[in-house]
């Protein structure tokens, strides 16, 4: 079979630890034999980020702006322990957060459903997609440890010099901590429009939730912007599509989600989306069975796995021990990016290959061949547990039949 051509580059962002190992397995076994890959490569592994003072992350985000589509491997966001372990010059920010801020996108995460693995929430029958606002809030906060008695104030100074001072707290001699965080009307508006557009594209109801009864300025601003944009730009479109926009408080939303049948988009602020996407993924089966795509209102797309770098398996791998790491989310990051590249370029062959790759991956699990994490969850009989590399090779066997 002649390899599929890719005239326009796809931005590739390599990552860390076990997912970096899997990334290479996927390229060698599931992509390179079938596609004449045209990739703009950026190494976002922690050692190279340190070498470049994290400039490579910014370069990768700008490349996505240039070419429209990127695919990213999982990466380490270093804490103090990682700084020591990797001998880093700095405790760098989350590369995901940096990229999201530059692209001003919304992250949509949805579970990969397969027969034989039922959600732990028995009412769920259809996927729940988490739409996470990927800008500001606690991920771009300013923090300070207060030593001893002090007064904290929030100061806003306008360009004309007018100053507003808001009292935060008076600390006693034991001190404490304080943080400030921010968002912008522009970013919240982009978030709202991305969610409304995605709901229309997928013909799904959209839920949005904050805690505006407590946060009467910050969270309430999110609520108001969503409501204003919906009424002015999307209400009639939603009615024609027979879908609903629904707002409620975040705690009420959690209760409703658990009682629901699924099949809708749940829009969340940045931190809420971070937490709830993990909850939804785990309840549907596994974090390794969760797709993730960053969509910007300008039409940029970045696909990635929703999970981390699987550190424990990486150190087993380095010690020469066998691992059984689930690669589904990383495979679907590639298939999603390839499909979108094909859509934007009118490359039907590439789109059909992406469909075949996903079909082969799902069929492998549904035939009872899977990694250890899924074997512990499945209701299928006669399950064959395979290691990391052999799972990918099993997918290749089925992919060959679909595209050969």
What key phrases describe this protein's structure?
404 residues; alpha/beta; ten-stranded mixed β-sheet; two-stranded parallel sheet; 22% strand
Give a quick summary of the entry:
The protein is of the alpha/beta class.
Describe this protein's structure:
The protein is 45% helix and 22% strand. The longest helix has 24 residues, at 218-241. The chain contains 14 helices and 18 strands. α1 (17-31) packs parallel to α14 (388-403). The strands form five sheets. Strands 4-2-5-16-15-6-7-14-12-13 form a ten-stranded mixed sheet, sandwiched between helices.
SS-based structural class? alpha/beta
Oligomer: single chain
Unreliable stretches (pLDDT < 50, length at least 5) are: none
Compute the separation of the termini in Å. 7 Å
Q: Radius of gyration over alpha carbons? A: 22 Å
Helix content: 40-55%
Q: What percent of residues are in strands?
A: 15-25%
The number of distinct β-strands equals: 18
- Using the alpha-carbon principal axes, give the shape: globular
Number of helices: 14
Strand order of the largest sheet: 4-2-5-16-15-6-7-14-12-13
Average pLDDT works out at 94
The major sheet is characterized as: 10 strands, mixed
């Amino acid at each position: 079979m002649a390899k599929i051509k890719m005239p326009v580059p796809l931005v590739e962002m390599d990552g860390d630890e076990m997912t970096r190992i899997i990334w290479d397995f996927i390229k060698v076994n599931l992509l390179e034999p079938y596609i004449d890959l045209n990739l703009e490569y950026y190494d976002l592994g922690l050692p190279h980020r340190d070498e470049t003072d994290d400039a490579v992350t910014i370069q990768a985000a700008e490349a996505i702006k240039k070419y429209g589509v990127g695919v990213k491997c999982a990466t380490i966001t270093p804490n103090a322990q990682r700084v020591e372990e990797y001998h880093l010059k700095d405790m760098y920010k989350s590369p995901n957060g940096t990229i999201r801020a530059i692209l001003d996108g919304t992250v949509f995460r949805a579970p990969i459903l397969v027969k034989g693995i039922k959600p732990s929430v028995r009412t769920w029958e259809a996927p729940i997609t988490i739409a996470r606002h990927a800008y500001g809030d606690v991920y771009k906060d300013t923090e300070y440890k207060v030593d001893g008695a002090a007064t904290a104030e929030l100061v806003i100074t306008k360009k004309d010099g007018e100053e507003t001072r808001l009292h935060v707290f008076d600390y006693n001699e034991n001190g404490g901590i304080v943080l400030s965080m921010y968002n912008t009307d522009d970013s919240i508006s982009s978030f709202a429009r991305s969610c409304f557009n995605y709901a229309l594209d997928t013909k799904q109801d959209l839920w949005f939730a904050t805690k505006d009864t407590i946060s009467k300025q910050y969270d309430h601003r999110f609520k108001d912007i969503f409501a204003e944009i919906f009424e002015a730009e999307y209400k009639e479109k939603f009615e024609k599509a027979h879908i609903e926009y629904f707002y409620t408080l975040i705690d009420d939303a959690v209760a409703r989600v658990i009682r629901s049948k699924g099949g809708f988009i749940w829009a969340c602020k940045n931190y809420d989306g971070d937490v709830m996407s993990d909850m939804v993924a785990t309840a549907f089966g596994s974090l390794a069975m969760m797709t993730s795509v960053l969509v910007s209102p300008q039409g940029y797309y970045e696909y990635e796995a929703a999970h981390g770098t699987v550190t424990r398996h990486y150190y087993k791998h380095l010690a020469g021990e066998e691992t059984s790491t689930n690669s589904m989310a990383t495979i679907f990051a590639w298939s999603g990016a390839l499909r979108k590249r094909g859509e934007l370029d009118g490359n039907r062959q590439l789109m059909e290959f992406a469909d075949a790759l996903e079909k082969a991956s799902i069929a492998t699990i549904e035939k009872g061949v899977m990694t250890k994490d899924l074997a512990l969850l499945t209701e299928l009989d006669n399950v064959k547990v395979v290691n990391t590399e052999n799972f990918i090779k099993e997918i290749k066997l089925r992919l060959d039949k679909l595209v050969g």
